Amino acid sequence: MAHYAFLDANNVVVEVITGRDDAGTDWEKFYGEFRGLVCKRTSYNTSGGVHTAGGIAFRKNYAGIGHTYDAQRDAFIPPKPYPSWVLNEDSCLWKAPVPMPEGKFPCTWDEAAKAWV
Description:
The chain is mainly beta. It is built from one helix and eleven strands. The radius of gyration is 16 Å and the shape is elongated.
């Protein structure tokens, strides 16, 4: 079993499906032609470029609706949560400009103050 993401003309994920992964067939091409959209495989177990079960990490992060596929990085990037956050080039995840305080939970990001509260 594998997962596949369908992209719109702007490389934004519009749908994710569970599909086949049998050897010998290019399933990205098959599903893409069937739907008339670009299709990219993604891994449910991949986050930040690491496969949680020790397998192959596909495209840095599991694709979700609204994520963007970056062809240069061959990565799915989630939507930017706040204007001040920056992209971690290794994980392709967004990072706050100030580290989250340790041991102080729950806390949320205050964009106006650019701080955790």
